[in-house]
Amino acid sequence: MGSMAKDASPSSDDSHTTEQPAVKASGIPMLRAEDFERALVLDTVRVTEQAAIAASREAGKGDEDLVDSAGTDAMRRVLNELEIDGEIVIGEGERDDAPMLYIGERVGRAGSHAWPVDIAVDPVEGTGITARMVNNAVAVIAIAEKGGLFQAPDMYMEKLIVPPPAAGKVDLRWPVAANLASIAQALDREVHDLTVVILDRPRHEELLREVRAAGPRVKLIGDGDVIAALSAAIRGTNVHAVMGTGGAPEGVIAAAAMKCLGGEIQGRFVPRNDKERERLEAMGASADRVYKTDDLAPGNHIVFSATGITDGELLRGVKFFRGGARTHTVTMGHFSRVVRFSDAIHLLDRDARVSIQI
Hints:
The protein is an alpha+beta fold. It is about 30% helix and about 30% strand. It is globular, with a radius of gyration of 20 Å.
């Protein structure tokens, strides 16, 4: 296997001498945040790479369950090989509905030297688009210290996601036009130069009218608001904001990425009935509150990884060759402030030979 990585965002000088935050892991002395990242960042890459490869094997066959099962099984297998004592806090659903990676499931090798962590996963973000071989399907994971990720219920969340220059300069409670004007000003653009990503759903008809009336271009997507969030926060994708209502669990995963990238997500839970409202209140959350990045991803020690399953604007999909596969991954850590794009060759057949081209 070979891997070529490129750092894509500013990082702190390794020579600095300021005291760094510490993490307490079971059986391990207090360690610096950079040690947490060094221990786990490559592991997160391996987790998403293997999930993406497995899911991509089933891409284009029209079977969403087959895609999801393949990605989930691979991700769980790799997680159970890691030196972690992990708990799934955002996963495939409740235990009764999800046989693997359900909320509350313990993963990892545990043991006295394992890192105690909370984990948010989406083995296949975009099962439908993977089954149809459509762009922008990814495998994603976020890992944080215990309590570092909000345990959001599986319900809708209204979201506003913006890149780093616009962080702190928008408010989900403002009119759409006001937020767009603020984003444009932060990016030194005109509003009509912006591109806003919105999930293509009937519930967004009014939002679409408001956004289009304000002047920006709109990119409608079928699935994948986590990869859309990444695209908004990383320059060069020509995506400048994400708006609309999607899954709350995906909002937490997006928040972990925004915490690492310096972008911002604001979210407000949207319970559809009294049962969901009661469940939300039982968790100590409120439908009247706007949750920000630090509310959804409060941890100081966060690592995030996403690997492309199908091709997209940010990540290339898995490419197979005789005896192996090639993957494209973005990974990041909150402390290091480094974003790495990794292009990896996986020789799945021990006897495989490949000429690597860059």
